Amino acid sequence: MSIVSFxxxxxxxxxxxxxxxxxxxxPRFMSPQTIQSPRAVGDAVQAILSEHFLAIAEESIFxxxxxxxRRSMADFAFTDExxxxxxxxxxxxxxxxxxxxxxxTSVKRLTAFYESDQNFFCLLLAQYRVEADRLSFxxxxxxxxxxxxxxxxxxxxxxxxxxxxxxxxxIQIDRSISRKAMDVKSLRNDDDFLxxxxxxxxxxxxxx
Length: 208
Known about the structure:
Distance between the termini: 20 Å
Number of helices: 5
Low-confidence stretches: 184-189, 191-208
Strand content: 25-35%
Strand order of the largest sheet: 1-2-3-5-6
CATH class: Alpha Beta
Order of helices and strands: HHEEEEHEEEEHH
Shape: globular
């Protein structure tokens, strides 16, 4: 049976538009000291989007879970009326930084979570610039991880393998990529990853 997800309905575009409007309409929420800290901005944006996501998504959400532990895969989660479960990781990126390689999740966690076709690991990525003493949000992307092209991803040699954005300034989104396309073949074709991993961890690849 084909799974019809939140991203097939076009609701994700409405969330992106409402999220960027919400962030840009916020009263000044960073001090002159903290506005220069990407970590501080990330924590503040995460708090704002987590608090207001239910209102942003309007009638699209059936059940909402507003908070997770700091080291979990995501910052909040929701289910839709079809029973699909979406866990959402809020990410921020300052556009005038030269380089950033954010961690997304581990291969082990993602493969375990994606054993069900009704589970979606999603990114809510807010891109911004610092203008004087204010934040100016330029784009917000709300996508499942499989919409990120492997051309902009890498896998770090940590534990079971950590999926990372290779350079947050060069994100490639392809909304035509299917869940099936993000499989073991992608990992096996990543020569850098294979060369960095020892053979005793090769069982990682079979999790997909």
